[in-house]
């Protein structure tokens, strides 16, 4: 009777890869959050020695574990919620976890600080799922809101081979952290700028060229607000050109990149806004934004991007995303003036903020979102939004015509 070991090795490896991939061992918790449980898959380790050795090699190739150590007990909650990083293990379970390839130790330096004697808190994340990159991005955004944060922090990146001859799980063969893997592990930390101290250590020697490149990038300053705004404007213009050319999906990609340039992350229907404090300054450098308040210029760009993104979705007949994109901004505007985010005002004149810095673009958002509702025959919602659009854009004949098309008819 044939058994599993009768299969060709390459087919067994495909099965191991499917069972041991991090993506096969997680469950969705909502938004971008996941929980991991390898227990069912790691039953492979207990079947027999040959399967154990074969599957363990695949497991190691597919799962690179990173240990984060910090004095701040709430760090894991912050990176999980703000950075959307999935935590595999946390203290005390993470304290003795033996399979981390990269150990990230963040030390604080405040003279006479209580942190001098506080213990470390540890948590484990996965590299392959993008969580290390998200962790570093979360750190980057924290430094935007707290400009002096990194000047009080030092970082030790320690490379470990968890499968050396002296480890609990030895594995013979080629070095398990080659140059490419080292580069991939160190690359995300280029987002972390101007630390008090930085070093690379561990029982695996890092390639000097990689350390030098990382050190050079980390010493650079953060892009100032005006550079972010200029880059976002360039990407918005590229998006507009794609929109005009009928390349609607490409236009949306450019618009999302423009959002990203001003620290707004668009991920499907999810949006996260970072760096408000970073843009709370008047621009003094020469350029198109000189003399402007960076926060105000950012708002104008964001509103224009929303209006144009809705138009691109309308062109694609993707009315669901057009409505979602428009209503997200409309709800924020309603809440800011004390209105119910879903109902708005009964009088459109009370809802329209005609003195708003980007009132014309807001009118387009109301109009285009209303047209998306009209396209799915939700005339009541369309009528409510188009009435507000007509206040924002009183001289636009198209708005008036479309409003008339959804007006209540008296029998």
TrEMBL record:
**One GO CC term of this entry?**
protein folding chaperone complex
Q: What is the organism of origin for this protein?
A: Dactylellina haptotyla (strain CBS 200.50)
For this protein, the record's InterPro entries field holds:
RPAP3, TPR-like_helical_dom_sf, TPR_rpt
Would the keyword Iron turn up in this protein's UniProt record? no
Q: Which SMART domains match?
A: TPR (SM00028)
Query: What is the name listed in the Swiss-Prot or TrEMBL entry for this protein?
Result: Uncharacterized protein
Q: Which UniProt keywords apply?
A: TPR repeat
